[in-house]
Structures are given as structure tokens and as C-alpha cells.
């Protein structure tokens, strides 16, 4: 994954008895991925420290450097951080933006500010939204807010569902795209209608736009027009732009001023943040213009995978969405995650090609899912390259499945 989720939770898997084994397995995976000559995306976890530092230095030395390397480092968010905030506000067409060390903090501050302004602690959000799935109920336990659910279907809520909520709410939070449902987006008219439905309920609208950068191709709209639908927007700098870390909250000047005060209270007023700010500026210059090409090529990759799975006679498989809405999508196969993980590592070790990384089983045992990211390195892959890599991967899956069956028998 380009956002680093493949390796982010691995420390939790290392208990007192299996920690050494898991650390060795992780080291093997990273070595295989790092040594690959062909990959659809380079994940941040597989980059060595010296390589990352060299990349930042190269960005500073380029003729089109994102910031003056002779400038001073920031102190509590001035200088380069202020330049990043200005760039984000301009790109989104918002009055102002504030840099945050994490997206979770930016989201919580936004919701807290809106709760105070609307007088309502109720947030309408999807149960698969990042706010619910990946922030440890921070909106509830830290900010004292609570949620209502317009829908539990694995898609964004509709205008009718928002109008039909049976109690008042102060904020509608929409994740664009809805990552845990498969990086799915509504159609443009559906999004406009959903926002209008929230306005009819006297609610404000907040976009969880961690991956908003790559939504322009699907909507056929530029970033300012998309962001203009919302009262506030959060964006990430590392999920699609290849940054080190960090996020921004954009909106009206008055909201951003208040958000800065809460950022300090939440511990987000860091002494220096220039490496993260520099990497974010570099990502805005280097990756943002290329994201539409990644989205277009993701559709080529997805179609080639479907073709390969069908030709190989895989009993059940799914690429979701069939036509990706962004440059990321889900792949489902009817094998245990451990088998697919091992097949992927062997493919990388034996052919120096990475197709898939980590798999998990979010549903029935033996049915695994992975998230695929298509980035700059994928643009060299033709549809035939994808099907050939998929065939080689499935061959290793079959070998492992046969061995496993004999062993269990």
C-alpha cells in the first residue's frame, strides 16, 4: 500500500512468544519488496532512511525545488509550514488551512469546532468511515461527540438517507473516497444532493478528504469545485502524495483560527516540522499532477486482473469496484491470507516483481482481501504485464495450496 498500512499494525502482532518470528517475517517481506525491479507502487515502509533523506535532498537541489533550501527551519509552524498551508488553501479554494501532525487530530479538531458552533454533538457518518474504523472512537472518547448512521450499506449515504435520519445532527462527515468500502465515490450529482440534504437539516458538512487529491478524475471536477461543497476539508500528505506524515484542515478563516487553538491544546503545536512540510510540498509538485494518470491506469490494471483470474479458473474472485473510482481498489481471492502473503513474497524473491503485498480476511475464513495501489511505477506495466504477473502469482498460490493440503491431510 502506498499509505503504509501494510506494515503499520505489525507491532501489534508481535507478542511475547511469536515476536521474533514475526519480526523475521517482516524483515523478509521488506527485503523482497525493496529489491523488486517491478512494482505497481512503492510503499513507504520499504524505503531505507538514507534513501528517504537523499530524496528530500534531491528535491531541494532540483531547479524546481518546492522550497528554498537556504531558508530557515520552522519554529512552531512558521516559514515552510506557513507556505504549505498557503498552498493547500489555494489548491482547495479555501480561505485558510492549518497543518496538523496527524489526520486523526485534524478530524477531531474539525468536529469539535463544528459541534461548538452548531450547538450539536451529533455527527452523521458512515460506520465504515475512517472516523469509526481507524481513530479508536476519538470523536466519542476525546471530544464527547456521538454518531448517527445514515446507512450501513458499503457505499456513501444518499440524500434520501440523510434526510431520513430520525434525529437532528450538527455535522455530516463524508469520507471521499470511502476507503473501507473499496475506495468508492458517489457520482457528482449524488454528492451535491447529499450535501444539499444536510443543509436542509441545518447541518454543516465536513469532508474527510484524506484521499481527496485523486477524486478529480471520477467527479470530472477540479479540487476547488469539489471542496466548495463542504464547510471544511481535511487532506493527507502521505496517503497519495508520498509525504512523510501530516495533514491539513482547510475552511473559513475563523474556523481555521479556532482549529489552531485546539491544535495546541491537543499537543499538535510541534517545535519543528520542516521535514514533513518539505516532503508534502514536494508531493504537491511531483505527485498531484500525475494522480489522474494513476487513476486511468488503475482501470487498465483492474481489467487485466479480472481477465487473468477468469482465465486461470479461480473459483471466485472479485475486483472491487470493477472500474476503480480512484487509483486504489480491492482484490478478493478465495484463499487464506497467509497463503497469499507467502505467494507474494516468493514472487518478489524469485522474479523481483511485486504484484500484491499484505492480505487479510475481514469476512469468512479462507476469503482474503488486499488493497491495490497504482502509482508512478505502474505506468510502465501493460495489461499483458499485469496478467503475466497474476499468472505467476497464482501458480505459487496453487503450489502452496497443494502442499498445505498434503500437510493437513
TrEMBL record:
Q: Which cofactor does it need?
A: pyridoxal 5'-phosphate
Tell me which GO cellular component terms the UniProt record holds: cytosol
Instruction: Please name the PANTHER family in this protein's record.
Output: L-THREONINE ALDOLASE, L-THREONINE ALDOLASE-RELATED
Q: Which InterPro entries match?
A: ArAA_b-elim_lyase/Thr_aldolase (IPR001597), PyrdxlP-dep_Trfase (IPR015424), PyrdxlP-dep_Trfase_major (IPR015421), PyrdxlP-dep_Trfase_small (IPR015422)
Q: What are the residue boundaries of the Aromatic amino acid beta-eliminating lyase/threonine aldolase domain, all occurrences included?
A: 77-306
What is the superkingdom listed in this entry's lineage? Bacteria
Q: Which UniProt keywords apply?
A: Pyridoxal phosphate
Pfam families per UniProt: Beta_elim_lyase
Q: Which family does it belong to?
A: Belongs to the threonine aldolase family.
According to its UniProt entry, the protein's GO biological process terms are: glycine biosynthetic process; L-threonine catabolic process
Q: Name one GO molecular function term.
A: L-allo-threonine aldolase activity
Q: Which SUPFAM superfamilies match?
A: PLP-dependent transferases
Q: Does the keyword Lyase apply?
A: no
Gene3D superfamilies with a match to the protein in the record: Aspartate Aminotransferase, domain 1, Type I PLP-dependent aspartate aminotransferase-like (Major domain)
- Region: Disordered; residue ranges are 1-26
Task: Name the residue ranges with Acidic residues bias.
Answer: 1-15
Under what name is this protein listed? Threonine aldolase
Q: Where do the coiled-coil regions begin and end?
A: none
